[in-house]
Every structure is written in C-alpha cells, then in structure tokens.
Amino acid sequence: MADVARLAGVSHMTVSRVLNNHTAVREETRRRVLAAIKELGYQPNTAARALATRRSGVIGVLTIDTTLYGPAGTLYAVENAARRAGFSLTITSIKTVDPRSAAEGLDRLTSQAVEGIVVIAPSSQIGQALSPLHHRVPMVTAGDALAGDVPAVYVDQAGGARLATNHLLEHGAERIWHIAGPRSWLHAQARARGWRSALKAAGLQSPGVLYGDWTPASGYRAGLLLVEKIQEVDAVFVANDQMALGVLRAFHEHGIRVPRDVLLVGFDDIPEAAYFAPPLTTIRQDFAAVGEHAIRLLISEISGEAAQNSYVVPAQLIVRQSSIRRSH
C-alpha cells in the first residue's frame, strides 16, 4: 500500500479510504489512486483489512445448484451489483432444496465472516432455515419472498402471468391451458395463481393444469397430452420458455400450427425465445433491477439503516408471433 500511496502522491490513509469506498475522497484523487493500483498490480490483503476494520467486504450468496435461466440470471445480476458497490461474493450452492441443506449452506457462509447474505433459492422449503439466522446476520432474498421477516426483492410473477393470460384473452382465446413448473417452486405457484386470477376475472373456468420440471423434455411430454385433446385448447400459457420449446416440438410433430391453430405464450424471455419457430411471445424479467435492489437493501441492513421489507419489480410482456393469429 505504501508503494501505491507514493506513486499516487497521497497518504497511506487516502489509499485505505479509496479501497474501502469511503465517500470523503475527491473523484480526481480516487482516479489517481486507482490508476496507481492498476499500474502496480496491487492486491489488497482482505484478511488484514477485515481484522483492522471488522469489515470483510464480502457478501455471501446461497443458491441452488442449477443452470436454470431465472436463478442463474439473478445470480449474475447480484454479482454485478455487488461489484459496483465495492463488494466481492462467496457463493454456496445446495444440491437438495430442503431446510437442512439450506441451514448447512448458511452456516458455511457465516463461518467465512460475510457481512451479509443474499438467498437465491425459489422454494418454499428454504424459508424455514432463514428466520432463525436473520437476527445474527443481515439477509435479503432475491427472486422470492421466502420468510416474512427477511427483506425480499422479486419480479411480480403473478402479475406477469396475468399479463400473459390477458394477452391471450384479448386475442380471442378462452380455453387457455397452463403448463406449470414444479409444485414446490414459488415461481410456479405464483404464475399458476396469476393465470387462474386472470381467467376468473374474465368469468372463465380454468380448463386444466399440466406440470413440468422446467425442461424442454417435460414441455414436450405435456404438449403430447394436449395434442390428445387439442379440440379443447385455444391457447397455452407455459411457465417458462424452455418448456414452451418442448410444446412447440410436440405440436409441430402432430401438424398443430402455432399460432394459427393454438396460441402460445412462455415466461422468462430467454435469449433464444426470439428465434423459436415461430418467435415466442413471453414475459420478460428484469434481473438487473432485482440484483441492484437486493444489494441496496442488503447494504442498508449491513449499515444498520431501516430498510423497506420488500421491493417488487414489474414483469413485462414481450409480444411476438406465437400469440398473434393472422386473419386470412
């Protein structure tokens, strides 16, 4: 650190303030110190800094072991937001979604002296492990509200489902089926709830729910079941885009044309959705906003400030060809 101070022409204390993101440093001085750090390739000794300041500069993340678009997108957004705020991350993934695994994962994080924890695990079973620990370490959930006393940031899943269902209703569909995600996932529960509420508001009965596991293969299997009763299907709202891809494959194999015969809407707006055949109408989630607000809430908790209990990010309908039946 002394070499950095000498090259930048500042005091040892000023370098320390820059490293700790202290506000009492002029922007010109901050740039000069950062340039010196880069030129010298200086790496701060985080362990020593933690001992001196009782601040580790590390945020822990508990997440599930998955490559699914929603949790993976949320993790990426949280990491970017934490980095911009001057924190690094340590991540613990759990393979089994249950209270015991969650408690073990949280214990691993707290043993690393993290300043706070972000939980990205969209299952109702995880919430049981959070409340007992929240009084000991600042904590926020990102993606779902898992425990009543833990601040949460999440996309309005039910609202997104209502957008999707109302869009199909506006385009003439009445018998709108739903292919849901796993029953234990809060996202799946909320999307099914939003679908039902939109149909109820329109005075319509829910024709039926089929369940998948978020994969294209499960969507394909559900699509084959719908093929058998296609005369009872005007449209399908699918709880994620990967399962919608499987539905498209099943329909295509049996000569069912989307959108001419059946309208289709997914959820997530994965990068490939615009290149499905036909391009998929879907619901977009603003993961960047989730990550930004989650880190902001956590920093407020770390600082001892009163933080709002939750922040809900609106979902957005992205209209493409799969839900628009052209007149001939």
Automatic annotation (TrEMBL):
Which Pfam families does the record match to this protein? LacI, Peripla_BP_3
Ranges for domain HTH lacI-type: 1-53
Q: Which PROSITE patterns match?
A: HTH_LACI_1 (PS00356), HTH_LACI_2 (PS50932)
One Gene Ontology molecular-function label: transcription cis-regulatory region binding
Keyword Transcription among UniProt keywords: yes
Q: Which Gene3D superfamilies match?
A: 3.40.50.2300, lambda repressor-like DNA-binding domains
Which keywords annotate this record?
A: DNA-binding, Transcription, Transcription regulation
- Name the source's superkingdom: Bacteria
Name it.
Transcriptional regulator, LacI family
Q: Which organism is it from?
A: Acidothermus cellulolyticus (strain ATCC 43068 / DSM 8971 / 11B)
